[in-house]
Amino acid sequence: MAFFGLTALGPQNTFEAQSRHHRNLQIFEYEDFKGAWERVNGKRSVSCPVELLPELFRALFRGPVPETDVGPLNESFDHLVFGRETLSFDDFMKTMIKLRQEAEEQEHQWEGKPKPECEYNSSQSFQESLRKNAAIKRDLQTKLTMPLTATQE
Hints:
Blueprint: H1 14-17, H2 30-41, E1 47-49, H3 53-61, H4 67-81, E2 86-88, H5 89-109, H6 123-131, H7 140-143
């Protein structure tokens, strides 16, 4: 997960880190999911009480779950644990691996294309819009989760 201790979580790209379209689940591997399970439930545990799921997610992310990942996690696990008191390790792993693959596919769909938070894909078009004094199409608060600079606040 981490490369020489540079990062524990998230992308190296500041713009992706604040994007409303970036999911973080693709950075985890099988061992990370298993490690979070063991931290919350113990090494030999085969099931987890449903009320410990939020704690399990916090252990996985080593802190609060990013808002872009809360929805997919809740949606997947709400259907899985409906009417049940415990969640098996196998069900947890299958769901987490499926969510990881979905996040990877979502990331790959934007390869080579400008992402939704990016209005310009060339310096020339950006300079032209500045000369024409054109307004931006989307508000900065709807593109990013938090401002990158003080002028965006």
